[in-house]
Amino acid sequence: MPANNMDELVALCKRRGFIFQSAEIYGGLQGIYDYGPLGVELKNNLKNAWWKSMVYENDNIEGLDASILTNSMVLDYSGHTETFSDPMVDCKSCGLRFREDQVPEYCKKEDLTEPRQFNLMFKTNVGPIDDGSSYAYLRPETAQQIFTNFKNIVDSTSCSLPFGIAQIGKAFRNEITPRNFIFRVREFEQMELEYFVAPGEDEDAHNIWVQKRLNWWEKQGVPIKSIQLHEVPIEELAHYSKKTVDLMYKFPHGLEELEGIANRTDFDLGSHSKNQNELNIHAKVKLNKDSNSKLSIKNREGGMVVPFVIEPSAGVERGMLAVLNEAFTIESLAENKTRIVLKLKPHLAPIKAAIIPLKKNDENLVNLAKKIKSKLQQLGYGRIILENTGNIGKSYRKQDEIGTPLCITVDFKTLENNSVTVRDRDSMQQERINIKDIESLFMEKIK
Ligand code: ATP
């Protein structure tokens, strides 16, 4: 059961240490957020799940971690300097500035200025001299350095078509109106795959990746039935795209894009290549006078070809928001009581198990709890915590709210007969098991 509104999620995220506004003690910085002790775990778990499904489970996908600061020529030839902009309007009545398609209802149409294009890239100075000539950009998408590293990766691995290059990392966009918590922010992370195929095989590959991505979201707890496919109308397509299918999810504030899957054709490799006239490039590209590399690869017949590329591009923050929204549940209990429980998939849960000594600071109980913690921690499934508060009811409530799949309680009976109580987050059922069986039960539930 998803959350009723964004406020419920925002409150939980703040209260339990998932997400904070950046520089909150100075009033914040608009569109920028920090990830607390639980947020960083959830984020890492989501990114790891993506990385595993791409790089480890496919024999033809390689990983990359390229720089954030980007040579301006990369973004000139990619078309970003010229076209990566949104139309912006000012309201003469309230003095605020909006993206043209996001003007709030309280501003009257006749009070708006004519739209002007506003480039979304952050520019920064590189090196000690700030004379305006030595600048770079913070990348607005992770994709471009995948294209500029295309030859490095082909030459250093045994890639042949079809193959992919995957990357997770920060991207920056000076959004005119950041809003809706972490949905639209100015600093975010993308999980992007560029999947290279022979021209002509692009449309089939596109359909296959749409299905694969839906299946992946389902495994993260965002069911396929909660996602609508939206084919972007031709007049709204990005300059590089032949076709884009957006995965639209019903966020607490409305139906919006969770991930975009684009057919970028041979536009990017063609744009960054030298000797373009020798390459039979299908897309319309700007003449490149600066690149020192021909970005082509052998096709099956032995000739050289500039591959087409299919790009599934997902935002980590939007993914977290969808996952949190789907997991958020308010359950009715006996005596008119309720509990909040985050029914996260165990592989995404920030804390995998909490070990709780029944009595706070009791040396025997705490030492045994520490031993159990350390044993489970060594299994390498993620963070295990020792919850030494002595208030079992409060501990269960907290662990439910942060989505911890298992609570293991060590009590005085444990000292007598080596048994502990294991409580399951979703069913709230408790069973007593022998300490020697904890590891296998844990692995069974967490895998
Ligand atoms: P939108 O139309 O919502 O501005 P977009 O079409 O510009 O998004 P893409 O360029 O396709 O987005 O980026 C791929 C993914 O990166 C998006 O599906 C989204 O998950 C994420 N993303 C893009 N912009 C932002 C942002 N400002 N804040 C958070 N995530 C973002």
What distance separates the N and C termini? 23 Å
* DSSP helical segment count: 13
Describe the main β-sheet briefly: 7 strands, mixed
Low-confidence stretches: none
Number of strands: 24
| CATH class membership of the largest domain | Alpha Beta
Could you say how many structural domains there are in total? 2
CATH homologous superfamily caption of the largest domain: Bira Bifunctional Protein, Domain 2
What's the CATH architecture name of the largest domain? 2-Layer Sandwich
Biggest sheet strand order reads: 3-10-11-17-14-13-12
Overall average residue pLDDT: 95
Bound molecules: adenosine-5'-triphosphate
Specify Rg, calculated over alpha carbons.
25 Å
Helix content: 25-40%
What portion of residues belong to β-strands? Answer: 25-35%
Under CATH, the topology of the largest domain can be stated as: BirA Bifunctional Protein, domain 2
Assign the structural class, choosing from mainly alpha, mainly beta, alpha/beta, alpha+beta, or little secondary structure.
alpha+beta
What is the 3D form? globular
